[in-house]
Specification:
- The structure is a single chain.
- The two termini are 20 Å apart.
- The strands form three sheets. The protein has a six-stranded antiparallel barrel. A six-stranded antiparallel beta barrel has the order 2-3-4-7-6-5.
- A hairpin with a 2-residue loop joins strand 2 and strand 3.
- It is mainly β and 294 residues long.
- Helices cover 10% and strands 28% of the residues.
- The chain has one domain: Trypsin-like serine proteases (Thrombin, subunit H, Beta Barrel), CATH 2.40.10.10.
- The protein has four helices and 15 strands.
- The structure holds 2-acetamido-2-deoxy-beta-D-glucopyranose (2 copies).
- The site of one 2-acetamido-2-deoxy-beta-D-glucopyranose has 5 residues, from strand 6.
- One of its GO terms (molecular function) is serine-type endopeptidase activity.
- One of its GO terms (biological process) is proteolysis.
- InterPro entries: Peptidase_S1_PA, Peptidase_S1_PA_chymotrypsin, Peptidase_S1A, Trypsin_dom, TRYPSIN_HIS.
- Keywords: Disulfide bond, Hydrolase, Protease, Serine protease, Signal.
- This is Serine protease 57.
Length: 294
C-alpha cells in the first residue's frame, strides 16, 4: 500500500499545503493494483534518475533513443540525469544494468505544461545501448493505425517513486488496464483533455493504474507503445479521475522526424529554455476541478 501519513512529509513530490485531508495510502507511490513483472520481461523499460533516485519511466525505441514524458524534465537539467536500462530491482547491483548519460533532450515543440498537451520528449543517449536479453526495443504504433478501441487491454509498468526509501516496490511493477473512450474520460475530467491523449481504467471495481513516478513509462497494447504515463487525479487509481496518457500514435511522425532527422541542437540551449519554464515541479497531480498540485 501507499506510504503512511508520517512518511508523506518525506516524499519529495508531496509538498501539498493546500490539501485539507487525504485518506491514508492515497499517495501510493507505485503502480496501483498491479504485480511484480517477471524480471526483464519488459526489456525496453527505462528508469530516468536524478540525484541517484528514480524519477520517471520511459522506453527504449532505438539503441540511442528513449521516449519519455516532457513533464519529467520540467526544471531538471538533463545533463545531470542518468538513464538506466536492463534493470529489475533498481537499487540492486544488477549485472544486466546499463547506465547512460543524456546527450540531448528534445521536447515536443507544442508541449503545454498547464494542460499537459503534447507531453512527450525524446532523449538521446550518450552512447549506444547494447541490446540483449535484458535490454531491448519497444515498437511504436504503426503509422496511420486506427486508434485503440475502448475496452482494449493494455499494461502499464513502472518503478513508482523511490523517494521514500522504506516503501520500495520489490521490482518493476505492472498493471493490466483497459482503454477508456476519450469522450467519457473527457467528461470525467470536466472537458480538460486535449487531442493526443489516451485514457485507461481498471475495467472492474478495483483500483488499478499508475501513480506519480511512473510518469513517462509506456502503456503497452499488443506489444506496442500506445501511451506514455502523463497525469492522473489526486487519488491514484481513482475511477473518477481516470489515468491519462500521451497518445503515442498521434506523435509517430514527429518521433521519426527527430530520430531520423538532423542532429538535435546541443543541450545548453535546451537546458536554458527549460530553466526559463514557469513550471516549478515535475509531477503534476490534477484535482478534478483542474487545480494542480505538486
Ligand atoms: C555517458 O554518460 C555517463 C554518465 O554521465 C558517463 O559515465 C559516461 O562516461 C558517458 N559516456 C560517454 C561515451 O560519453
Ligand atoms: C473535451 O471537452 C471540451 C469541452 O467540451 C472540449 O472543448 C475538448 O475539445 C474535449 N477534448 C477532446 C479531446 O475531445
Amino acid at each position: 500500500m501507499g506510504p503512511g501519513a508520517g512518511e508523506l512529509g518525506r516524499l519529495l513530490l508531496t509538498v501539498v499545503l493546500t490539501l485539507p485531508t487525504r485518506p491514508a495510502g492515497s499517495w501510493g507511490a507505485r503502480i496501483i493494483g498491479g504485480h511484480e513483472v517477471t524480471p526483464h520481461s519488459r526489456p525496453y523499460m527505462v528508469s530516468v534518475k536524478f540525484e541517484g533516485q528514480h524519477h520517471c519511466g520511459g522506453f527504449l525505441l532505438r539503441a540511442h533513443w528513449v521516449v519519455s514524458a516532457a513533464h519529467c524534465f520540467s526544471h531538471r537539467d538533463p545533463r545531470t540525469g542518468l538513464v538506466v536500462l536492463g534493470a529489475h530491482i533498481l537499487h540492486a547491483p544488477e549485472l544486466t544494468q546499463q547506465v547512460f548519460g543524456i546527450s540531448a533532450l528534445i521536447r515536443h515543440p507544442d508541449y503545454q505544461p498547464a494542460t499537459h498537451a503534447n507531453d512527450i520528449c525524446l532523449l538521446k543517449l550518450n552512447r549506444s545501448a547494447v541490446l540483449g536479453p535484458a535490454v531491448g526495443l519497444l515498437k511504436l504504433p504503426q503509422r496511420g493505425a486506427r486508434p485503440l478501441k475502448a475496452g482494449a487491454r493494455c499494461q502499464v509498468a513502472g518503478w513508482g517513486s523511490i523517494s521514500d526509501f522504506e516503501d520500495l516496490p520489490p521490482g518493476l511493477m505492472e498493471a493490466e488496464v483497459r482503454v477508456l473512450g476519450l469522450d467519457i474520460c473527457n467528461s470525467s475530467w470536466r472537458g480538460q483533455l486535449s487531442p493526443g491523449m489516451l485514457c485507461t481504467q481498471s475495467g472492474d471495481r478495483r483500483r488499478r493504474g499508475f501513480c506519480s513516478a511512473d510518469s513517462g513509462g509506456p502503456l503497452v497494447c499488443r506489444n506496442r507503445a500506445h501511451g506514455l504515463v502523463s497525469f492522473s487525479g489526486l487519488w491514484c487509481g481513482d475511477p473518477k479521475t481516470p489515468d491519462v496518457y500521451t497518445q503515442v500514435s498521434a506523435f509517430v511522425s514527429w518521433i521519426w522526424d527527430v530520430v531520423r532527422g538532423p542532429r538535435p541542437s546541443p543541450l545548453p540551449k535546451t537546458t536554458r529554455s527549460l530553466q526559463e519554464s514557469p513550471e516549478p515541479q515535475q509531477h503534476w497531480v490534477y484535482k478534478r476541478d483542474g487545480k494542480r498540485f505538486k
